[in-house]
Amino acid sequence: MSSENLSDTQMEYEDEKQDSQEKNANLVKGEEVKLKAKYPGLGQKPGGSDFLMKRLQKGQKYFDSGDYNMAKAKMKNKQLPVAGPDKNLVTGDHIPTPQDLPQRRSSLVTSKLAG
Amino acid sequence: MAGAGGGGNDVQWCFSQVKGAIDDDVAEADIISTVEFNHSGELLATGDKGGRVVIFQQELESKNQPQCRGEYNVYSTFQSHEPEFDYLKSLEIEEKINKIRWLPQKNAAQFLLSTNDKTIKLWKISERDKRPEGYNLKEEDGRYRDPTTVTTLRVPVFQPMDLMVEASPRRVFANAHTYHINSISVNSDCETYLSADDLRINLWNLEITDRSFNIVDIKPVNMEELTEVITAAEFHPNQCNTFVYSSSKGTIRLCDMRASALCDQHSKLFEEPEDPSNRSFFSEIISSISDVKFSHSGRYMMTRDYLSVKIWDLNMESRPVETYQVHEYLRSKLCSLYENDCIFDKFECCWNGNDSVVMTGSYNNFFRMFDRGYRQDVTLEASRESSKPRSVLKPRKVCTGGKRKKDEISVDSLDFNKKILHTAWHPQDNIIAVATTNNLYIFQDKL
């Protein structure tokens, strides 16, 4: 649909554009080589499934009712449930109660933007 | 009336206000996640990671200082969303406000939609400046009077009171999204709106919360075949049957709801062909579109991918009509940007009131404006250092080569933790709101 009659200056511009595009491509390929050197096992389909899956699964935490009940039983001997230093660890004592699962409580403090 | 814009031709941007704490220790809840002016520009809303909404109102211009535009001061603040845990799916649902969209004003009250990953809420913000006084059976403090002491009857009257701004949730649109909501968009018919998650787009009626229509579904039967996700969606500003959605593969699909109930078949597909020799591991990631916005005119749309802003003419699907490089110098840093996850940062973009200038954020608290008419661009910085009232912002420059000129900053010195993802432009005037991590800056043109 678009006209392809390019004037001289436009041709020069197109050439320049192509040069800089090649330069850009080389820069990016250089970065790719660096990355592959660091992570040789990086998947064949970089933008593909693994990556998108990770994005779709954001927020996934694992709750085990067996762990929960075990920890609840243990809690009788403790004052307060102690959340482990690594909050992402999902087995055993590290998920004692549902109260700990929403790791963050809602902000009871007014936003500082309104201060 | 908005002038020629931010390209530096005749507009000089000045610091006006900054909101938020000064200290460097940023609580996660204070991270600003969305910024939006209402349709008149009188109100400016922000949402944060803590699920809170703060609304600022522009003060009326004072007669003493006709050269100054009104300042934005806090009008209302409320907790919009709370953190939740979905026990059935073992999913933690963040309270972070992903998007706020204002409804056009129809009566005295203001309405906005705010959404987190799973639930959209319609909030009504209303003013109360009078209250009834003179009840027969109640004292002013609410205690009931002893009926035997009532000897006369009177009619309660409304008396003026200090202005109170109340926010109340009027509708809760829940349980319609399996995946994470990235966009909401109010239709020009003012009756419906869409909400989009990674794989589906739903159409809602603002009055009805227990039902929504699925209008786009790109979930493959076999999830292993998943190759792209929906990244943003928006209704056309005046054609109520038209909307667009962008993907992680750099394509934009325009759909017409008159064509069929399920708009899986696009009416138009906008995609810029890539030179296969340029293909790299990073190609798809940096082509992922993080934001799509129609121009006010409805003739164009703008997309933001990792390195550039593109303007598309809705009449031409083959390639954008304009491309602006936001921070091309990052091409030589893609490896480290992938390692520190910055390559996945989702920058937004916005148009000025007359569609002549577009703006987007970058790193080091820099933000960029591109004047489409004058073909000029400028890089400005949102920082406390340049926040003296009405001080003119100095253009910034990143040097890529070896020789760094005075006042330039080298690529290696850029702070990638200081990112400006969210910006907004007043619908009529040259007033912009720029969000750094936890501060909101307001800049105006020099009058």
In a nutshell, what does this entry contain?
The complex is a heterodimer of chains A (115) and B (447). Chain A has 115 residues and is mainly α. Chain A is built from three helices and no strands.
Descriptive notes:
The complex is a heterodimer of chains A (115) and B (447). With 115 residues, chain A is mostly helical. Residues 81-86 of chain A have low confidence and may be disordered. The longest helix of chain A has 31 residues, at 8-38. Among the domains of chain A are: 1-44; 46-77, no CATH class. Helices cover 43% and strands 0% of the residues of chain A. Chain A has helices spanning 8-38, 49-56, 65-75. Chain A has 3 helices and no strands. Chain B is mainly β. Helices cover 2% and strands 40% of the residues of chain B. Chain B has helices at residues 283-287, 334-339; strands at 13-19, 32-37, 43-48, 52-58, 72-79, 84-86, 91-93, 99-102, 110-115, 120-133, 157-173, 183-186, 192-196, 200-205, 213-217, 230-235, 242-247, 252-256, 268-270, 291-294, 300-304, 308-313, 322-325, 349-351, 357-361, 366-371, 376-381, 397-399, 408-410, 422-425, 431-435, 440-445. In chain B, strands 1-32-31-30 form a 4-stranded antiparallel β-sheet, with no helix packed on it. Chain B has a 4-stranded antiparallel β-sheet with strand order 2-3-4-5, with no helix packed on it. Chain B is globular, with a radius of gyration of 24 Å. Mean pLDDT of chain B is 93; it is low at 1-8. At the A-B interface, helix 1 and helix 2 of A face strand 5, strand 7, helix 1 and helix 2 of B. Chain B: GO terms for molecular function: protein phosphatase regulator activity. Chain B: InterPro entries: PP2A_PR55 (IPR000009), PP2A_PR55_CS (IPR018067), WD40/YVTN_repeat-like_dom_sf (IPR015943), WD40_repeat_dom_sf (IPR036322), WD40_rpt (IPR001680). Chain B: This is Serine/threonine-protein phosphatase 2A 55 kDa regulatory subunit B. Chain B: PP2A consists of a common heterodimeric core enzyme, composed of a 36 kDa catalytic subunit (subunit C) and a 65 kDa constant regulatory subunit (PR65 or subunit A), that associates with a variety of regulatory subunits. Chain B: Belongs to the phosphatase 2A regulatory subunit B family.
